[in-house]
Design goal:
By secondary structure, the protein is mainly alpha-helical. The chain has four helices and no strands.
Length: 118
Amino acid sequence: MTIHRFSAFCAWLLLAFIIFSTVSPIGMRPHDFLPVQVDRALAFFLLSAAFVIGYPKHWLLVGMACIAGAFFIEALQYLSATRHPHMMDACVKAVGGILGVSLAICFNTTFRRVTQAS
């Protein structure tokens, strides 16, 4: 399995986990030690990075989808009575997604150069 296929597989799993964590009742939400805003940004950072590494030719589409997805997933919280969506939370997720895309583009460029040189 190549790094791109593995990353794409992980990206889809991360997306499912993020949607579950966002929409599920607050009592079912996983807990960790990170501050909540860092947690949100990190989740979208990892998600967008995994998608860009998994689908390197589609980095722009991934970036736009992560930004739109951040707001869409936040809006899904209206479906749960115990959740309260906030615009700031969506913005933090979008920034995490943009940073993830940026880092993954750098990774893909470096990875391509190293594999072509050898």
